[in-house]
User: Fold Acetylornithine aminotransferase from Anaeromyxobacter diazotrophicus.
Amino acid sequence: MKKKNVVLRTAIPGPRSQQIVAQEQRHLAPGLQGFALWAGVAMDHGRGSTLTDVDGNTYVDLIGGIGVNALGHCHPAYVAALTEQAQQLTVGSFTSAPRADLVNDVCGMAPAGLDRLQLYSSGAEAVESALRLARHATGRQEVVGFWGGFHGKTAGAAALMGSTSKYGLGPFPAGTTLVPYADCYRCPLALEEASCGLACIELARKAMKAQPSGPVAAVIAEPMQGTAGNVIPPKEFLPAMADAAHELGALFIADEMITGFGRTGKPWGVDHSGARPDIVTLGKGFGSGFPIAGVLTRDAISQAKPWANPSGASSSYGGNALAAAAARASVRTIRDQKLWENAEKVGAAMLAELRRMQERHPFIGQVRGAGLFLAIEMVKDRKTKEPVDTAVMKDVYQRCVRRGLLAMTYSPHIRLQPALTIDEDTALEGLSLLDEAFRELDESGRWR
Assistant:
């Protein structure tokens, strides 16, 4: 496929990138994302779905800031909104026109019945607030999360992290129970999807009743799990979990950080299943790069005290005028252009191409996608589903970067969540570069 976007001027990483990365690493503390470290490049500017490094090399960006970059790099409406607002008012707790507009815009497109919004500066902060709200509204303490879940790295959110990533981080706050999520490719019950009868739903329902040490305040779930590898559960799963929560007298929290605002081909991740959340957490594409997050809920729930007391739900940076202006531009562009329709269209083309790639490469165990929320599962053997080694994923990633493609890889997944504005030609150009890297890996045999 002819490369329309990729321009390679130097070896990667180039000399200027190497210099800047070395300068940064002299004092920057450890803990950056692995794929950023593996690339070894320093970026200079971005436009749409491309990034250009300081050496002049231009890449197709299918990472999209891990779903943050909803509008694409430097979208004109977004740049104009930030530029104008930065010259008028940036911080402060007082009411501002951007914040007033934003809360009305979001509530106008929110899942049914959710008409109150509080604003924060990070996803984890919003999740912590949602947990407090649920506890205050119900008078209960216990929270149920899911295996494979990710809701942030602060103490309460990290307690809900359903993976080994939290090893060594505890002790965590008490009152957390984790139950199976419907990851059907790697079924937690080792069953086959076609014949399992969704047994994980019944197990999760029973566990919600049997394991907590007291009455449950909330059940929190991602409509589709991002960090677990862009996992897409059967449509029956989420409504069943919401029903289970309500049977227990608990609230159902949908964490829409990555699935909200059109990412999955519909305005909200819950729209695929019809699940009715009581609380929704927002982030990532909400601000299209500017740090802003939120908690959506019903009016009656929002009145719960002490959450509803003065300063009970506030945040130093939450909803400041500059952040609100950025999010307003993001939300209005997504809404007015119905970018979820582009996500559905381009995502379908990408998924079709990924399926063709799966036929060519024996190490692709599964491809999956909903809109521009896609993933590739990498395996040594399709029958056993044994994951490929992390070293193989690093090798694939670096082969992609050297070709001019940025695609998020970590064992055993490749996650693709580009800007909602990406066009089909750019998306398929990126996948053609991934296919080239796969052909090299296939020939080397290193994946076995």
Summary: The CA atoms of residues 4 and 425 lie 9 Å apart. The first helix runs from residue 15 to 25. The mean pLDDT is 95.
